[in-house]
Write a structure and sequence with these properties.
The protein has 1169 residues and is α+β, with helices and mostly antiparallel strands. The protein has 33 helices and 34 strands. Residues 410-420 have a biased composition (Polar residues).
Amino acid sequence: MAVNPNSDELRKWTRKIDALRGSLEDYNLFASQFSNESMHISQIKVRLDEVAEFSEKFEDYQAQVEMLEEKKDSDWVYIRRTFRNRLCDVKAALLRIVDEHAANADHVSSPSMSSLASQQPGGTFNSIRYPPCVLPTFNGDWQQWSSFIDTFNSMFHNDNSNMPLVQRFHYLKSCLSGQASDVIKSIPTTAEHYQHAYDLLVNRYENKSAIIQSHIRSLLDTPKVVTPSSSELQKLHHHISSNINALKSLQQPVNQWDAWLVTLLCSRMDSTTVGEWYLQYKSKELPSYDAVEQFLASRITAYEAGDINCQSHEVRKVPNRSSNSKVHDKKALFVKSKEKGGGKCPLCSEQHKLYACSQFNSMNIPERRNVVIKSKLCFNCLSFGHQVSSCFFPPCPRCGERHNSKLHESPTNASNTLDPTANDDDRPQPHLTVMYTQLGTPVAENLNVLLATAIFNICDNFGRMHSCRAVLDSGSQLSFITKSCAKRLNLSMTTNAFNIVGVSAMASVAKQLQDTILCSRFGDFKTNIKFYSLQTIVSALPSQLLSCDNLKMPDNILNQLADPNFHIPGPIDVLLGADIFFDIFYGDKFPLSDLAVLNRTKLGWIVTGKISTMSPSNTLPNLKIHDQSALSFFASKTNQRILEELKAEEHFKSSFSRHCSGRFIVKLPMAQDPKVLGDSLDMAQKRFLNLERRLIKDKPLAEQYDKFISEYISLGHMELASPISDKPTYSLPHHPVFKSDSTTTKMRVVFDGSATTKSGLSLNHIMLKGPKVQPDIFNILLRFRLHPVALTADVEKMYRQILVAEEDCELQRIVYRSQPDEPLRHYKLKTVTYSTKSASFLATRCLHELGAPIKTTPIGRIIHQDFYVDDLISGGGTDQECFDIHKQVHSILGTAGFPLRKWCSSSLTILNELPHTQKDPNFMVNLTETEVLSALGLRWQPSIDSFRFTTKNWTPPTHMTKRTLLSDINSVYDPLGLVSTVLIKGKIFIQQVWSLKQGWDDPLSEDLRSKWTKFYLSLVGLNDIILPRLALSPESDSYEIHGFCDASQHAYGACIYIRSIKPGGNAEVRLYAAKSRVAPIKTTTIPRLELCGALLLSDWFALLRVTALVRRFLSNCKAKFSKKELVVGFISMEEINNARTYWISRSQSESFPSELSSLRAGRLVHRGS
């Protein structure tokens, strides 16, 4: 839409810019005519101050002009550049005059010049102009006195007859500060008082005894080095040596002080450096101070060399002492102190750890805590030698707090009737559901005191509103907010910190944040509020799922609840204290039951009182989480998400239907009533008008955009809507996105379901996300590598093939017009819209529903497990099997209006048999022998059935930062880790850059730039790598899975190979999958890193899952010939356990072959085995 500028407004801002330009020219003329005789330097300084404000004023004025007048961006850039260049020229001319004036002043009054002139023979002075000397300073520190008075005497006091006494007095006062200036502060600054002041200062500080004692006290107060580094050791060395040298200059017998100087120096060095000193010092005689000082100096040099290597990211190779021995880091000798007790249990004195003590395990929780306190053990790992604050072991897996799981006091302990003499591993454990209800408890009604909660909007630092959930507490003097929520709001933190004391005198520290605005979702209530940040306020509220069956909730109040999900456990972002608590109550009440009541507030109606918890009969028994499981740690955090997923699943089952054409009709799963949404039309119109200005400037984009919208209308996916509706509506902003590698649609329109309305909520805020119903990309690609013949396809416009119920289409409105002179039209989208929160779930759930009736068949397994959203990545054992898959899957999906296209295969036979008479030109993918296809992001070349890797056309950016490094390394997509050995080098480099503590957009040094450039340009070699897609050899009759793991000081990793054994005995080995990780920045031992690699190998998603997957595939291959039922569905725990048994059996057969053969033959195993 063309903008009609207001001519009067435009002229006003243009005149202001012209006035700025005129002032600049006047200042430039003044600078060119400036004369020291007739003008003063202050006139220049006044103009400099005004010029400094010109830049900001110009930016403000120019921004107003650009909003009122249409020009090309290049024109505006030229205008801005011209003004800035002229501004810099004028400012430089004014600064040049100031610098010349300062240079002339220095030439006249520099003390160094006059003092040097007086020392020349005959009073003559060398014509060379020396730079001015910096005046010495003295603040009363005894250790600085000697150097200060010598410097002052040489510059001003001794034989300087050319400098007046009053000028010397001025210099003397300007050199003094602190206590020293107080000595002569009251003396008048006159020539006759200079000598008196000088003598007073000398008499006060010329005290050799006090100076010596000051240096000795400084030595005794030397700070201790905690962490060995070049900077810390350099500070220690400088502090000691400077005081020693000063004492030597004061004629003290420092050479006779070796005993206490060596003791002092060793006590101030860190334990690692002291240990290395005693390792290299072989004599038992008392070492001299000079020997220890020389050792410390050499250590500093060594550390500095290491720091330089670290900064340049060059890996320093340490030569081996022998060919068969490893060189270990010497830090390992002294970093870990020996534990007290020699490995004995502090309770029973047996040779075992405390957590393995049967006497300790038989105690209850309070008794165990007393034992730990009396034995002075770490509460987190139950070990000697450190406290919880310095413990590197992970926290309790049940609650996340910093204590051992043996000391975890569950809230259900009081009601559990367990055998107190049983060990933790043997006693029966209580089971908790995700909704915090105990299974197996009586069906009696349990009452829960409900704390009042509310949802409202808080203004962030940029003026945008964010929805937050709060608990209302009149017992708190302040209002608090979690640090995560404060970070989301971008609220800055002040320097004020407060000690917060709670129940049982539990204390914590809270920091004050900047003031912000709190707005109600109902009405016009808003207020300024001051928050204090805490790490956490409280766990999920309420603590249990509450039953609302007995509550008599009025219909007119239901949509005005301050927290519509008050009965569902959820996270708390804010605590509103007494400073606002009593200001929000109106005083109106409405009884819900005998024990619960509604209270009307300015934030909406809040529920308080006692409400019964959900009975076990209403919970889902298949959602049990064992109390000892690591998942129990996440139960409170994932509780809301799991409940939302269950609700979305139930909503889909109860609301979906099929159109007469077979297409699915779904309803949008809503977490809240759409009435809570505010007005969104104004926001959508503003966003469209901004988009329209862009389309006016870019005609090709405008044509593509209009073509896309027209296709939307012609296919019946969108229709005109009335501007006025009696139902809740939501207008979606939209914008174009580009996908250059797409073979069908290069540009598509994306709708923004997260745009907030005037209430601070968006459509995505009140929608349910739904669970994930399809496997991960990793698992689909693993199966893809097992099929002898590959087959891929794509569902055309998958989301738009699913209809949305008519009543929900009002929540999917847009505004659009093809020409700026047309009126804005309102449309409503009739299909599932991508970029909405539930779109992915609804689309994949419909696909899953299609395969449900045949889920036990091979086709059902393909529909359930070989689709990732709309991409089919599958295959079969033969060409005929793949052709049958094509026909059946195409037929089944066609009944629901899911047309499959972009068919491709590794077999030319299948491509030739596929029908070529389809109207859709994209029904098949016609590739040349060298072209590749994207298979879930991997570059697959069907002609040779292999994976390829490509790197982007890369040139070193002029501004290389951490952000660009991450973008570069992530541009190579490798979900299976097939080239992880190459990419891990780049990740190690990025980790080293991270250790420099640079900002995200701070430019890297030239050395780092060159190293990254060399690494990334070497990735061009990946273009030549060809990896076969098929991991199994078709001619083989048996297969073996081999897993390897290893670690270095920089990284660790694991990989899995499949070994195919052919009938002749020859074997073929192919890499199946791999993973690698960068080692932690904190230095650790190689054995620990090797354990990390072993853990990575044995991970659920690696060895056991892959083994179960391959074993199932081979079993299904045999079942096809014997016509047995195939195993389909997700990997079960039984298959995982069978895979674990397989590896245990394999390890035993390789490690104990003779023992196993003896047992099979019925013979006794030798005792020494």
